[in-house]
């Protein structure tokens, strides 16, 4: 036979979370672990057989080995062609773009995103379908169900030289290695005014872009360096490393501290940005000024028409529920719909496919549009540069003018990472148990209006998704949200999202920690979380 059928037994823990199956490398290296999950995908997504798929990853440790295994299994499962990123590397947004561009049946992106990599780090497998977007929960649930009954997987022999552009064969399957960077850069040139951005850079506007030793480095070098004239010494950590240099490739004030030091230190550049492991997140800063990702979504939605790809305006906006509500005011002003979805990009897909929204984003450092079906870190950075070039104003001036028009949503997220799972669950249960009795209660000068557990009904296909986070709304307009992360691999991560609104005429200069301190205390009073978790402070505040 051209392939082997290998007997195997199920693993009980192959249920994908917010964004694919994410586990420790040591879990993925258990016998048949990766193979079981991949076979479960082939058994579930039937059109991969005889179809064309995309494959690549963020280049982290185990990427190369996993890619060869998946190629051999693709051949044995009857895939007709695999489009493979050069050296098996693809950013998540580039993967989404290529699936759409080549009309593929879908693809596998190997990444654990912002989680650390290396032998003791994390690995992940994300599945995207023919729209280019992450598979919906109905599909990932079916894959998990299949993994629980799996008894065999199929695998062929052979190897592919992933560095050789062009077509090779593995059994009857074609493997075409492409250079995704060029393609992606050209695509960005269609959406943004590169000549205006280039003129801005030539006028002396300085930037600092930190690729965090992850996947965006080569894209940033081509786009910012070669095409926009940014000097290469303004681009940091652009060589992708299998362990991301030992760091967390997560663009937040803790893990992107080198960028924050630069932007808050003496003589900062005019604009700072960083992206994450797989290139779908970004942050934006001006000199001594950090733009909260929820504000990024709002400012971009309000100004997208300044970029050529969006010159006719936007159709609608979506944000995940815990994301700050600054964009809601923009939608009201533009008289377009705003949708509130559960956490994770997979919920935006239907809205984009149905033409209901153009722009969407999350508080976890991402904004993107319907140009693809993933979030896109470099798109966000280019959008900011385009807006700055078009307006001729600084990041801070743009954001402050936005607040004066729409009011300011002081917004912060507190993460308690790698805490005891049972304790984290008990905190959620404690708040859940009080939801119905909270109305009217006053704490820290705030009175609770109503509290609930977020349920999403997809307006396109009617799918109902329950238990997507606990929300406490206050009469003042403030909001407190709590939920457990679905991307961690050790213990549990409790996320607390705090938001306080001050109108256009109000004070926009309160220290963020101070502005949200009362809400943080309310979260603690309601759930006794610090005592229960035995922590005095969050692990990360973003
Ligand atoms: C986190 C973020 C969420 C994001 C997800 C995947 O999920 O909060 O907004 O969509 O990561 O991002 P969770 O369940 O841990 O809160 V990425 O950059 O990992 O693909
Ligand atoms: Co990511």
TrEMBL record:
InterPro entries according to UniProt: A-D-PHexomutase_a/b/a-I, A-D-PHexomutase_a/b/a-I/II/III, A-D-PHexomutase_a/b/a-II, A-D-PHexomutase_a/b/a-III, A-D-PHexomutase_C_sf, A-D-PHexomutase_CS, Alpha-D-phosphohexomutase_SF, PGM
Entry keywords, A to Z: Isomerase, Magnesium, Metal-binding, Phosphoprotein
GO terms classed as biological process: carbohydrate metabolic process
EC number of this enzyme: 5.4.2.2
Chain residue ranges for the region called Disordered: 1-22
Keyword Magnesium applies: yes
Reactions performed catalytically: alpha-D-glucose 1-phosphate = alpha-D-glucose 6-phosphate
Record's keyword annotation contains Metal-binding: yes
Signal peptide stretch: none
Enzyme class: isomerase
GO molecular function: magnesium ion binding; phosphoglucomutase activity
Required cofactor names: Mg(2+)
Entry superkingdom: Bacteria
Ranges of residues in domain Alpha-D-phosphohexomutase alpha/beta/alpha: 14-151, 183-284, 295-406
GO cellular component: cytosol
Family per similarity comment: Belongs to the phosphohexose mutase family.
Protein name: phosphoglucomutase (alpha-D-glucose-1,6-bisphosphate-dependent)
Organism, scientific name: Litorimonas cladophorae
């Amino acid at each position: 036979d051209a392939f082997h059928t290998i007997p195997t037994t199920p693993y009980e823990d192959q249920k994908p979370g917010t964004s694919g199956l994410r586990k420790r490398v040591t879990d993925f290296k258990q016998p048949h672990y990766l193979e079981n999950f991949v076979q479960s995908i082939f058994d579930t997504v039937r059109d991969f057989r005889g179809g064309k798929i995309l494959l690549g990853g963020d280049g982290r440790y185990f990427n190369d080995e996993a890619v060869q295994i998946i190629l051999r299994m693709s051949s044995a499962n009857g895939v007709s062609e695999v489009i493979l990123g050069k050296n098996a590397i693809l950013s998540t947004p580039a993967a989404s773009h290529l699936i759409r561009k080549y009309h593929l049946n879908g693809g596998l992106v190997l990444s654990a995103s912002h989680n650390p990599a290396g032998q003791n780090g994390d690995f992940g497998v994300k599945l995207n379908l023919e729209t280019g977007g992450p598979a919906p929960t109905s599909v990932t649930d079916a894959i998990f169900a299949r993994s629980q009954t799996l008894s065999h997987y199929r695998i062929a022999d052979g190897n592919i030289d992933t560095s050789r552009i062009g077509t090779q064969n593995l059994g009857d399957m074609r493997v075409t290695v492409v250079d995704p960077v060029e393609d992606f850069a050209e695509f960005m040139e269609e959406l943004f005014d590169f000549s205006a951005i280039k003129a801005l850079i030539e006028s002396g506007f300085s930037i600092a872009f930190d690729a965090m030793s992850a996947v965006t480095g080569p894209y940033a070098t081509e786009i910012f360096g070669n095409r926009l004239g940014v000097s290469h010494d303004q681009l940091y950590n652009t060589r992708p490393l299998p362990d991301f240099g030992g760091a967390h490739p997560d663009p937040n004030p803790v893990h992107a501290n080198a960028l924050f030091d630069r932007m808050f230190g003496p003589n900062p550049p005019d604009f700072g940005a960083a992206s994450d492991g797989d290139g779908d997140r970004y942050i934006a800063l001006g000199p001594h000024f950090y733009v909260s990702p929820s504000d990024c979504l709002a400012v971009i939605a309000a100004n997208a028409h300044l970029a050529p790809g969006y010159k006719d305006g936007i159709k609608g906006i979506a944000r995940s529920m815990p994301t700050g509500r600054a964009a809601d005011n923009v939608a009201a002003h533009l008289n377009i719909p705003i949708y509130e979805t559960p956490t994770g990009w997979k919920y935006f897909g239907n809205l984009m496919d149905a033409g209901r929204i153009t722009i969407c984003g999350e508080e976890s450092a991402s904004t993107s549009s319907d140009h693809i079906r993933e979030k896109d870190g470099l798109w966000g950075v280019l959008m900011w540069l385009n807006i700055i070039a078009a307006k001729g104003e600084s990041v801070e001036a743009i954001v402050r003018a936005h607040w004066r028009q729409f009011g300011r949503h002081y917004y912060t997220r507190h993460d308690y990472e790698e805490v005891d799972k049972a304790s984290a669950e008990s905190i959620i249960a404690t708040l859940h148990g009080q939801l119905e009795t909270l109305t009217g209660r006053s704490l820290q000068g705030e009175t609770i209006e109503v509290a609930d557990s977020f349920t999403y009904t997809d307006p396109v296909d009617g799918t109902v998704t329950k238990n997507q986070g606990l929300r406490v709304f206050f009469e003042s307009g403030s909001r407190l949200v709590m939920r457990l992360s679905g991307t961690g691999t050790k213990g549990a991560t409790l996320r607390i999202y705090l938001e306080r609104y001050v109108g256009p005429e109000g004070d926009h200069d309160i220290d963020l920690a101070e502005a949200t301190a009362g809400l943080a205390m309310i979260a603690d009073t309601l759930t006794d979380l610090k005592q229960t978790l035995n922590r005095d402070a969050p692990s990360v505040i973003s």
